[in-house]
Queue: 4 jobs
Job 1
Amino acid sequence: MVAATVVASAAEQTITIRDWTGRGFAPEVISYDVPSAGAWKLRVTGPNGSSLPVQIMAGATKARSVLLFPADLPKDATMTYKVSDSGKAGPAEVGIRSDGDTLVLTNTLLAVRVPRVQQRKGVAGRNLPAPIVAFQSSGGPWRGAGRMVVEWQWPAMPPVPARAALR
């Protein structure tokens, strides 16, 4: 893959990504360093001209941010993405919703059900909820019945030989 720096300005920038590995890449999250000023306005369009979902997160300093967007890269292909501060925002491909005592985290490929409470102090391991309660693939049935399994096993200790010499 090729790295590039994108500036958060009215000028459209082009990001070109090329597969040099000969294997291609499934949808990946691509990240680029951008100036923080105006970063929240950035939009990305894919090779076919469609708007992509973007996320902006804090960078290494207050003056810098990180632009994140999804990209596919077929085997031996070159893909071009356009970044600008105009145009419409891409669809939200991720979501979170409350479902009883769990949260459901979703994207276009799967959903994961996790316990609402993830931090507890002074609780025996066997009483903790599983970190993932269940998962769902592309709108299919929920699968799994996650539970925390805690077992303590102490390895058998062989006898330790000892020698003593009295003088």
Job 2
Amino acid sequence: MISPPPSSELTQQWLAFLTPISIAILAVVQVLIGRFSDSKAAKRAEEVKKSLGEATEKSNNKISEIHTLVNSERGILLGMYATAMEDLAQVSKTPAAQKAAQIARAMSDDHNRKQAAVDDGQKNTEEK
């Protein structure tokens, strides 16, 4: 069996002196590693935040473009539907067809009025 080396008073004094210093050095190293890791993580988080902001802005712009296109197409279709219903009402002269033509024209006019208000609001925003 291997016996431990003899422990002398000098060895005990050195251990008593070096142990707190070793603990202090380890604590400093841990703090430095933590700061390095935190700054690296913070930098990466900032990069992700910037990238996410750019992607969100691109998506919002694309959604706005699609919304404008859909509203434009809807306005055209409502106008065509109203015209077709008015033509049908003139040919058939039935009360149901005339009522359908009135409703279709009202829907088209309502859409156009709302779209004009939105367009005016966008122009006012762009001018500022």
Job 3
Amino acid sequence: MKKIFALLITILFIASCAKSGDVATSDEPAETMTEATAAYNKIETLIRKNLDLLAKDEPDAYDLEPGTIDNKFFNEIVAFGEDALPLLKLIANRDYYELEGYEEPNEKREQRWWAVQAIYAIKPDIYDLIFPSSDKKYTAKVKVNSFNSIFNHGISFNDIHIIEYATNKIIYKTDMSKTFHIGGLFWPAAIWSSDNRFVVIECCGRRSGTVMAIDMLLKKDIILPEAKEAMEIVFKNEKIKPEINVPRYWFSFDKWESEKIVKIKYGVGEIFNGEYDVDNKNFHGWYTYDLVKKEIVNFDYTFDYED
């Protein structure tokens, strides 16, 4: 009987404490949880309201240059900083709206692009690509150029910034679109040499892929041989020199042969000589290139189809 009485007293004591707040029922006080929920709701309400206004009043957000937007409704979203990122990432996910195609204007689609622009304004490194050197002295950062593309989830790239780790300063930069002479650069990569003097940059356009390098010692771009140089070698004995009818060529990094020699693999197609189609002479292969001497060391090719 005494045991039952003691148990009853204990239960009544716990119930009394719970009502008075002396016993915690969660990891956080109820007031704190309520404040946090209220704060998030405020952020969500304003973001959704402003995205709706932007989608109606300022369509085609994907055409705007990232990082340069100055708009009252947009700036209010960005002012929340990283607190806004979870919701913005949700809205920026194309699966969130289950959109079909990209042809027709769509208000929700416009909200998604505004969300993408806001994410970039708050934290560019979510979309910019970073390729550090092995000695952690430099990093090659490939900057977003546009979100207006039907490739690579809409993202194309342009500027390359070489940043010094110790100071976080840009010590060299180059414009890939001027170097490569192709519009819309997708899926870039940067590969450092073992001594970190050179970094090879490869990038794809809509119909072509190409490579370049940067000499960190001389702070200069190095334009590597592409389709024109390859065709001069392959067709050097032809009386009528073929041309590329439609840009269809792919050059990409294969491996480092040494600290200064890089191996590039390639394919060249859509060849035409002005009088007859020589598509059967599309070719592919590889070459090695000395980045110090600026010359081809070895060159190999194979025709895709034989006569």
Job 4
Amino acid sequence: MAKDKKRRKGETSSEQELEAKIDRINAYLRADGAAFLDDPNISSVGIGYRVKDKNNKEQTDELCVQFTVRKKSGESELESLGTTLIPKSLEIGELVVPTDVIQREHFPSYQLVEPEAKSVRKQRLDTLVPGISVSHPDGTAGTLGAIVYDRLSGETCMLSNWHVLCTPTGEPGDPVVQPGPYDDDRVTQNEVGRLSRSHLGVAGDCAIATIESRAANPEVLDLNVRPLRLARPNLRDLLVKSGRTTGVTHGQVRRIHVTAKINYGGDTGYQRVGGFEIGPAEGFPGADNEISKGGDSGSVWLVADEEGAATDIMVGLHFAGEGRDNPDEHALACYAHSVCEKLEIALEPPAELALTADLAGRRGYDPNFLGSEISVPELSPAVRAAAVSINGSHLIPYTHFSVCLNKDRRMAYFVAWNIDGAHFRRLSRSGLRFIYDPRIDRDCQTGEEVYSDNRLDRGHIARRADLCWGPQAEAMRSNKDSFYFTNIVPQHEAFNRSSLHGLWGSLENAIFEDVDVEDLRVSVMAGPIFRETDLAYRESRVPREFWKLIAYVDSADSQLKAKAYILTQDDLLHNIEALELDPFRLWQASIGELEHRANLTFGDLREIDAFVPEYVLEEMAEGERLPAVREIRSRGDLS
């Protein structure tokens, strides 16, 4: 049976001796055995029990190093094949291990069968489940093996093979489609995510892709079990898989610690891939006695109980099988633990680990991003005492943005971020959760207690999409960082019902469109405007006003410019206090006016203010103050 740490405690002495012997042989194969694959006739080498019938089905109890060759021949023919005689035994220290030679060649399991009536496994599904058709657009069709979780970003991902999700033409960021083009050639409509990471080598034939436009259910199709544990398979273990082509089939482990030489064609050619071999399982015949066919690539092998039912123990990732004319039915699988380690994935969401580990090194907002300094605003003395401080600074750094947090209101005074519009990356939010920043006392952060069981929105201050730029790993960190509660503010229904909400959220895009922004680089600051009259709710207060300031270099005159905006329920021109559910209105304001309303000081930014009001600030005869603002009713009013 597949072994994990708990199983090892119950081993007998004979089992322990066998495992020690296997470990000795495996160490030899890792160090020296791969050299056998330089022989053009040898297709794989591994550990198994000697077979004694010509069909390679009847096993003995004699452990051996098992070779597979493309052509089994007598000594007189060896020279013509460019090969040498495999010794009858190998000396591994004081251990003498017999060898066994079987005629067999392996092929990647992407060779497809003839078209047939389309099953649910080959249809486009709104909820992805392991066992269905997926592929790179340049591929044919393979199998989504498991729903897994990226240990670096916490994202929910799909697991399959390198030759399914990547192919020789692929690279990170490429689209992935479900179903594969062989099953449905409408690849544009069927995009489901992006290739994240892949590997082809001794560690396995494996890849993961994000899930961006559909839901996911980790239970394997027709097995009704979710993989939750990893183990190493042992010889004669009973396994089961669920694949795109053959559906549910059983197999039995017959060779372990195998290194196979597989021809992936084209420029990729022969590659050495590590794993183990699976043969038919007595008492559990598959349709046409097949345990796998083309298109099953990427399906996962799970340990089965004595009745053949799947357990939650995952041991392998299917990647190859016999050729069409080879009577020896078998499959090859990568070791599941090796795949998970190489791709840095887990079978369960990494919970707090993925979103809180290693926040050290975050550099935050870059004030010199535009080539000239765009400093964050200064807090007035009246509010400075409530600002959270880390390492002597009121700025809490993340990837591409920084937060200034008000511990009394438990949300940001402001967030400052940089946008590199020329290097945006399309990343999914799937699997990412809103969580507390572990560097800051939870009492200083507004968390789930405010948002549960109501329609109150978790509103990003720095938009997630704004932050996802740069190299892939960096963009993934910023995607994750955007979900800390420090960057979130509660927004009530009146905000979401506002017809201007979309315009408010897309002000940066509107600037890109209306002004020729140099290099598509923008620096942004935004936050709520706190008022005592804000709506009280669950020991918090929901802001009724928000501000945003956008700085950029105008390509037309190479001048640094800034524009400020306020979204409010107040009528700014008449200074009428808002009713509780008045609609939001969007205003462009002078930076001086923003300073007045938000209790912030923007310093030199007033000198690059692009807003020229029709009138200037002045004191009215009655002592009232006429603000420098104008209402924005449409995108055309932004210029």
